[in-house]
Fold:
Amino acid sequence: MRNGGHFELSPMYHSIILEDVLDVLNAANAWPGALQQTARNQLSDSARKMLDWLSCMCHPDDEISLFNDSAFGISP
Structure:
């Protein structure tokens, strides 16, 4: 999604995918040249949007909102 949300609009699934995106970015930073700069820029942009979306979908206690089939304790 352009706004950073996972297509199922489930904060739980979204956070699982976000963790994967952040893992790839961390690996790319650890091994320069393993990922083209264009791809790194696109992933960074997506991660920023995803983090923004997830922060909007969390309650003040930092727990995810229980939309669609989200549940506590499944994803980081």
